[in-house]
Automatic annotation (TrEMBL):
The keyword Transmembrane applies. Pfam families: DUF4229. The lineage of its organism: Bacteria, Bacillati, Actinomycetota, Actinomycetes, Micrococcales. Keywords: Membrane, Transmembrane, Transmembrane helix. This is DUF4229 domain-containing protein. The chain crosses the membrane at residues 12-33, 39-60. It comes from the Bacteria.
Length: 97
């Protein structure tokens, strides 16, 4: 597996786990506390999203950086010197407005 694919796979799987595990636990807890299924789902989803984002920010800086670098490498894989010069001209024109 390529290094770029590995970085993306790791990042996506961990992000999903950081949401799914808290969601399942919170959903079960809410149902045990007598919440309706709809309210339990909404409450669990909101809290799981907050937990997932927090864990992602705290624990996934390296995989996020690797995924970001793979995007950059993919976007610039076939760029020629002419493409770079053309982009510079277009950027300078839009900055001057």
């Amino acid at each position: 597996m390529s290094e770029q694919r590995k970085a993306w796979t790791t990042y996506i799987v961990l992000r999903l786990l950081f949401f799914v595990v808290p969601f399942a636990a919170l959903y079960a807890l809410a149902l045990a506390l007598g919440f309706t299924m709809m309210l339990a789902g909404i409450t669990a989803a909101v809290l799981a999203a907050l937990i997932g984002v927090s864990l992602s920010i705290l624990l996934l800086s390296k995989p996020r950086e690797e995924a970001s670098e793979s995007i950059y490498a993919w976007r610039n894989r076939d760029r020629t010197a002419d493409d770079v010069a053309e982009d510079a001209v277009l950027d300078s024109e839009t900055d001057g407005r």
